[in-house]
Task: inverse folding
């Protein structure tokens, strides 16, 4: 058996390579955060952004939204439900409903051109941007006869996108995922984000913190950073996978290179199926259920290959009991991913 120093000298490179990967992921993962961005909170479902210069700072919407559970409403129907007091404030799925309509109302300067971006959520979502022709202010009343009637007209849809098929029952619903980028001009100073959402596949609340808005040119920079980060990380991981695989093919006894290649491949798949999910763009035929299973499998595989790298570089730290425990955890994670649905995986996972 070689002394510890010789083990480090011979097999320290794979460990250093994995450390380098972690550093690259940490740095590149913050690319999307370089765009000036500020969170604005709301407890009423309305975000007043008229005091913000949206050409210099993007705004992330945080807080509660107006929602009507158990129904898919048009913009006009939602306005009527809101007028009758049927719309609630909070998270769409917080009271046990699995589908419904949610609205986020944004007040900006009239004529502002805005881009709404970010991940709309898990499950299935049909997202609409609606505008009104007049700025929502106090309407004419007997007490204020000189106030002009600027009551907003019926909202009209100016942009839309769809992810999956939201439905009132699980059998008819088709989950999907994607990244939303929609642009509209708020002629009347009001922009509404209306969602038809259904979540039959994940046990999550539904907050209003997924959307970021700003001037179109600023949001181009923001979305470019959001997309570039995972792609750069995936490129680095793919290159390192090929590198370690070639090393192993040239020297088969050096199994640490094979374990490093497996780790890089697992991370490549994991990064490709999280965040903006670029693998779903490259493989549009991949179903949501298979992608979700692969996401969990890749995490489990990355864990076991990292453990194999560690005991390959430092074999004196391993033991039969530790190896058996690692094998048991890995087998359990793989079995859970293969035989259970997404709700069970999420309940058992982090």
Result:
């Amino acid at each position: 058996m070689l002394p510890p120093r010789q083990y480090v000298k011979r097999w320290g490179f794979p460990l250093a390579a994995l450390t380098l990967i972690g550093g690259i992921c940490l740095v590149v993962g913050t690319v999307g955060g370089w765009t000036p961005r500020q969170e604005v909170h709301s407890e009423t479902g309305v975000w007043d952004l008229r005091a913000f210069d949206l050409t210099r700072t993007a705004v992330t919407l945080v807080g509660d939204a107006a929602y009507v559970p158990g129904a898919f409403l048009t913009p006009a129907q939602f306005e009527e439900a809101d007028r009758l007091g049927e719309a609630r404030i909070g998270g769409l799925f917080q009271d046990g409903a699995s589908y419904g309509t949610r609205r986020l109302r944004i007040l900006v300067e009239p004529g502002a051109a805005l881009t709404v971006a970010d991940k709309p959520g898990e499950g299935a979502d049909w997202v609409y941007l609606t505008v009104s022709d007049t700025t929502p202010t106090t309407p004419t009343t007997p007490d204020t006869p000189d106030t002009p009637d600027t009551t907003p007209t019926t909202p009209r849809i100016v942009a839309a996108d769809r992810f999956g098929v939201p439905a009132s029952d699980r059998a008819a619903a088709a989950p999907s995922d994607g990244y939303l980028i929609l642009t509209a001009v708020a002629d009347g100073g009001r922009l509404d984000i209306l969602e038809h959402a259904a979540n039959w596949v994940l046990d999550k609340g539904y907050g209003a913190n997924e959307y970021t808005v700003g001037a179109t040119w600023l949001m181009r920079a923001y979305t470019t950073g959001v997309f570039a980060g995972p792609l750069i990380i995936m490129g680095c991981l793919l290159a390192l996978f090929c590198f370690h695989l070639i090393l192993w093919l040239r020297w088969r006894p050096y199994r640490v290179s094979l374990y490093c290649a497996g780790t890089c491949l697992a991370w490549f798949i994991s990064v490709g199926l999280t965040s903006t999910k670029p693998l779903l763009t490259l493989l549009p035929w991949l179903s949501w259920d298979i992608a979700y299973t692969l996401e969990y499998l890749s995490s489990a595989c990355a864990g076991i290959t990292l453990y194999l790298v560690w005991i390959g570089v430092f074999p004196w730290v391993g033991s039969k009991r530790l190896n058996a425990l690692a094998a048991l955890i890995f087998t359990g994670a793989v079995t859970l991913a293969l035989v259970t649905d997404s709700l069970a995986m999420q309940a058992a996972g982090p």
User: Anything to note?
Assistant: The longest strand covers residues 99-107. The chain is about 40% helix and 20% strand. The longest helix spans residues 216-250.
